[in-house]
Amino acid sequence: MKMTVDFEECLKDSPRFRAALEEVEGDVAELELKLDKLVKLCIAMIDTGKAFCVANKQFMNGIRDLAQYSSNDAVVETSLTKFSDSLQEMINFHTILFDQTQRSIKAQLQNFVKEDLRKFKDAKKQFEKVSEEKENALVKNAQVQRNKQHEVEEAANILTATRKCFRHIALDYVLQINVLQSKRRSEILKSMLSFMYAHLAFFHQGYDLFSELGPYMKDLGAQLDRLVVDAAKEKREMEQKHSTIQQKDFSSDDSKLEYNVDAANGIVMEGYLFKRASNAFKTWNRRWFSIQNNQLVYQKKFKDSPTVVVEDLRLCTVKHCEDIERRFCFEVVSPTKSCMLQADSEKLRQAWIKAVQTSIATAYREKGDESEKLDKKSSPSTGSLDSGNESKEKLLKGESALQRVQCIPGNTSCCDCGLADPRWASINLGITLCIECSGIHRSLGVHFSKVRSLTLDTWEPELLKLMCELGNDVINRVYEAKLEKMGVKKPQPGQRQEKEAYIRAKYVERKFVDKHSALVSPSEQDKRSSSKSCEDQRLSHARASIHTPVKSNDSGIQQCSEDGRESLPSTVSANSLYEPEGERQESSVFLDSKHLNPGLQLYRASYEKNLPKMAEALAHSADVNWANSDENQATPLIQAVLGGSLVTCEFLLQNGANVNQRDVQGRGPLHHATVLGHTGQVCLFLKRGANQHATDEEGKDPLSIAVEAANADIVTLLRLARMNEEMRESEGLYGQPGDETYQDIFRDFSQMASNNPEKLNRFQQDSQKF
């Protein structure tokens, strides 16, 4: 039976390849036993002349046994059967045959066993040795800690060298297998044909019998010549393919990265991953994972039944994991459990994450008609904040968040299709969505839309107020400004394909945004803001406030005094965004922003706490990190700090603002919030990863500024955050949120800044005593 092993499967080192190797090795071992048996029987026939008839009969039985073994090869089976039947008739004429038997059967097959099968065994030993070395290198590379760089490099180099060696030896082994399988037929048939011709020559008495067998033997001889030619040709082709593949770069498994959602076998992507066990020891095991039939499964051996990790990809999410020591980790989270996985490289991790995300989108597309039934079971989306790592107690959740958000005009129906009672939201856009539209938003990527559940996810107070400030009506006035002019109709519930095209055109391509409303001429762009001098004096006063306590609140800044010194209005508060429109104080610091370029419009609207204008600027492709060269390279996030609104800062951060981008004085948002005594903003920036060790041009970090200003609340927050950071570093808990005490304190400050800002006025009240 001819059995070959595929070179491509060899490169993957997949369970299929291992199963094929196991089958081939068993087959070769059995073939060796059969051939050894046949040779020994032949020798016994020669050495035991007196009992040659018995030995000859046993030999015929051996031929029949080999014929039965070759039942899958019709040529070999038919030939051996015919030969054994003829030889049975000539069992009394074998005396002269022993010499020819010595030269044909014994010599040729024994040489085949000793030479060809020996090469196969040697190649097998090398393959098993390097395979074990590769497994050890993979385990060592996976176990090395990220903070031990020299060990990381050493393990990576060993893994690369071992992989290369493994592939070369594995390819040589597969070549040896295929050559052996190709040659075995010709060797067996060639020796047997020679033996039969010996019968014809030396046993004239059997001429009549062999005259009937002669034509068949001639046909077989011609067929054998073709088999030899074909085998030689096949050998050359395999050697050429072997040489071509050997020239490829196999420094890592990254060269085999690919996934196909339309694969014929239903497997989107497959490969080895390390999986962390859920037991108390948290051990890591290497398993063969695959994405198929909208499920994530794994298996230890090819013959094992796959173990299902995620039964329905629509109910899961995938995210990077940087809070553990092992590298290249990512987590697949479902409503009932989470699975921590580790790839062999960063490219492989990205490929797996993208494959899972693509499969999620495909699952929604294929099962769109059933998606509404999953509303009660769906898990948190990939757009969730990092608050998933913090304590979930005392945060707003469930019907409370749903009721508050749906009180906003337009939020009682889906922003994109109009379906009633939406239970999902896009937190960076500030809109509510039905479950089907939320799935489409999720497929756009978090840089366009971050999706959360209004009933299943936890909501931080500043995020909930952000949702209450915007709403479907506000956003649709921006993103659907030209909808009626273009004659486009919104999709209806249930129209999955129409929804996908509409949502992509609305938020990604922004076809319905009135792009002319934010254009500005070059001359207008060159004009400096009328607030330049006031802004400079305000910043100077803010710098002076480091040494002299000032009167302000957590969200506001002083007004200009009678002696000409200017500062920001103290009447601006963090809650002013939630007062009736007519009661809000209009800022006169900036000019009308209706015809500004998008970046400048976002910059000014951020100070004015005008979230609809900010959303409009972002819809016109404003750079959320745009720096104003006329005002010390200040960013919209810094302006939001100066404006005093916690919610405005949250909106910018949700839309990708860099929390560590600094102005020309070296001050980032955390510096400015500390200078102005905005405790709620300091708490927010620390939660969002602000670098509290950064120093300004005067060499001062936020902690030293807060200490000089004697702001006890901010000093407490900064020192607590620094202590928590040092504790995590000393314990090797990189990227983890910290202990519960740290989380509780920050959660309490967030609650006060959003719901009771007057409680944060202790610093200002104390400063008045001086």
UniProtKB/TrEMBL annotation:
Residues 371-391, 518-572 are annotated as: Disordered. Residues 524-539 have a biased composition (Basic and acidic residues). It is a peripheral membrane protein. Keywords: ANK repeat, Cell membrane, Coiled coil, Endosome, GTPase activation, Membrane, Metal-binding, Repeat, Zinc, Zinc-finger. GO terms for molecular function: GTPase activator activity; zinc ion binding. GAP activity stimulated by phosphatidylinositol 4,5-bisphosphate (PIP2) and phosphatidic acid. InterPro entries: ACAP1/2/3-like, AH/BAR_dom_sf, Ankyrin_rpt, Ankyrin_rpt-contain_sf, ARFGAP/RecO, ArfGAP_dom, ArfGAP_dom_sf, BAR_dom. Residues 266-361 form the PH domain. The keyword Metal-binding applies. Residues 117-147, 217-248 form a coiled coil. Residues 399-520 form the Arf-GAP domain. Its main location: membrane. Residues 379-388, 550-561 have a biased composition (Polar residues). GO terms for cellular component: endosome membrane; plasma membrane; ruffle. ANK repeats lie at residues 632-664, 665-697. The keyword Metal-binding applies. Pfam families: Ank_2, ArfGap, BAR_3, PH. Gene3D superfamilies: Ankyrin repeat-containing domain, Arf GTPase activating protein, Arfaptin homology (AH) domain/BAR domain, Pleckstrin-homology domain (PH domain)/Phosphotyrosine-binding domain (PTB). PH domain binds phospholipids including phosphatidic acid, phosphatidylinositol 3-phosphate, phosphatidylinositol 3,5-bisphosphate (PIP2) and phosphatidylinositol 3,4,5-trisphosphate (PIP3). May mediate protein binding to PIP2 or PIP3 containing membranes. The BAR domain mediates homodimerization, it can neither bind membrane nor impart curvature, but instead requires the neighboring PH domain to achieve these functions. Interacts with RAB35 (GTP-bound form); the interaction is direct and probably recruits ACAP2 to membranes. Interacts with MICALL1; the interaction is indirect through RAB35. GTPase-activating protein for the ADP ribosylation factor family. This is Arf-GAP with coiled-coil, ANK repeat and PH domain-containing protein. It comes from Mus caroli (Ryukyu mouse).
